[in-house]
Amino acid sequence: MSRSLYKGPYVDEKLLKKIAGKKPGEGGVIKTWARNSVISPEMVGFTFGVHNGRDHIEVLVAEEMVGHKFGEFSPTKKFHRHGGKMQKELEQKKKEAEIAAAKAAKAS
Q1: Cβ-count burial of 3 within 10 angstroms (0-12 exposed, 13-18 middle, 19+ buried)?
Q2: In this structure, is residue 92 part of a structural domain?
Q3: I need a surface site. Which of 17, 27, 35, 57 has the fewest CB within 10 A?
Q4: What per-residue confidence (pLDDT) applies to 1?
Q5: Residue-wise over 5-26: b if at least 16 C-beta within 10 A, else e?
Q6: Contact 11, 41 (CB under 8 A)
Q7: For 1-14, what is each residue's pLDDT tens digit?
Q8: The pTM is what?
Q9: In DSSP terms, which residues pair with 29 in a beta bridge?
Q10: 7 in a domain, yes or no?
Q11: Considering the domain boundaries, does residue 27 fall inside one?
Q12: pLDDT for residue 34
């Protein structure tokens, strides 16, 4: 659900203070825990370290990101893979195909 129009987008004040007076790309990574903060046009070009619960993930802000929230670019859950017998068989076939392709390339 979006924020009401008369309130405007939420931008963390601490973030604005950290980028005030700096030029994009000069200050290094700016660490933040404000995942709910909206990316504003002043932030374009800066690199932010967005916290995902464990560590900070570096996010280089581009023009297309304006209006989105920092949390969208720093996933909190890590996808391992779908498991099961069928998945193992598929991975084994893929590995065998790579080995065969490497042998064929080496022979020619």
Answers
A1: exposed
A2: no
A3: 17
A4: 60
A5: eeeeeeebeebeebbeeeeeee
A6: no
A7: 678 889 989 999 99
A8: 0.71
A9: 47
A10: no
A11: yes
A12: 94
**Burial 80-98, CB ≥16 within 10 A → b, else e:** eeeeeeeeeeeeeeeeeee
Give the domain CATH number at 28: 3.30.860.10
Give the tens place of pLDDT for each residue, 63-79.
999 999 999 999 999 88
Asked if residues 60 and 74 have their Cβ atoms less than 8 Å apart, the reply is no
Query: What's the structural domain count of the chain?
Result: 1
- Is residue 63 domain-resident? yes
pLDDT of residue 11: 93
CA distance linking residue 78 with residue 91, whole number of Å: 20
Q: Which helix (H) or strand (E) holds 98?
A: helix 85-107
Is residue 61 a contact partner of residue 40, using CB atoms and an 8 Å limit? no
Beta strand 47-51 with 56-60 is antiparallel
Locate 19 and state its tokens.
């980028």
